[in-house]
Design a protein that fits this description.
Distance between the termini: 32 Å
Number of helices: 12
Largest sheet: none
Radius of gyration: 18 Å
Shape: elongated
Strand content: under 5%
Order of helices and strands: HHHHHHHHHHHH
Length: 212
């Protein structure tokens, strides 16, 4: 078995057994997604969950008052933001706002790679949102989240590499492993988080230039 196949098998097995070492979505984001998926949830109930995190609340209000989303009256409460933007959009925006925490390196040797990965994810997310804004049938917030998540599969590969100094130092070999493995691993991760199939497909297929 090649090193690539062995690494992929190890990561997928760890994921299936709940042993995969991967920065998880912060608890507040998971709770927001859980609550927002309830068809009977109210803006008040969702706002109550979000306001348990003061930093997240402040960032959400900033986004709600940005030129992209603001209305005639400034949003001054999380509940108003939820009402104005809608529960589906809030669910995706909250996930987007906490994504950065997942790309913070736990190992000094990974610092540059994690920073570059996050920067690339931001750039793709911004481009995705701009493109989506030109097409009424594509949700801006979902496009933004898709951009942030599209390379999520690279994270566990990098974290495994942190325990394999010879691989971490061999830049070319590590890049090849990431390129060949991250779409499949990313899809597996998003499935395990119960993300919608549309986002799972983005992770799995975005590198497939022959996809229709």
């Amino acid at each position: 078995m090649s090193q690539q196949d062995q690494l992929y098998t190890t990561i997928i097995n760890d994921l299936q057994k709940g042993k995969l070492v991967l920065p998880t979505l912060p608890e507040v984001a998971l709770k927001v997604r859980e609550v927002a998926n309830n068809p009977d949830v109210t803006a008040v109930q969702l706002a109550d969950v979000i306001t348990t995190d003061a930093a997240l609340s402040a960032r959400l209000l900033k986004v709600a008052n940005s030129p992209l989303y603001r209305g005639r009256v400034e949003v001054e409460s999380v509940q108003t933001a939820v009402t104005r933007l809608g529960i589906p959009m809030i669910r995706n925006l909250v996930t987007s706002l906490v994504m950065e925490q997942m790309f913070r390196p736990t190992n000094k040797r990974l610092e540059n790679r994690m920073r570059d990965l996050w920067q690339h994810s931001i750039e793709v997310a911004a481009a995705s949102q701009v493109i989506a804004s030109k097409h009424p049938h594509i949700a801006n917030d979902e496009a933004l989240l898709a951009g942030l998540l599209h390379e999520i599969g690279a994270l566990p590969i990098l974290m495994k590499a942190a325990d394999m100094p010879e691989l971490l130092e061999d830049t070319r070999r590590l890049d090849t492993l990431i390129e060949n493995l991250y779409p499949k691993i990313g899809a597996a991760i998003l499935k395990s988080w119960d993300f919608p199939e549309t986002l799972v497909t983005v992770a799995a297929e975005h590198a497939n230039l022959n996809r229709n």
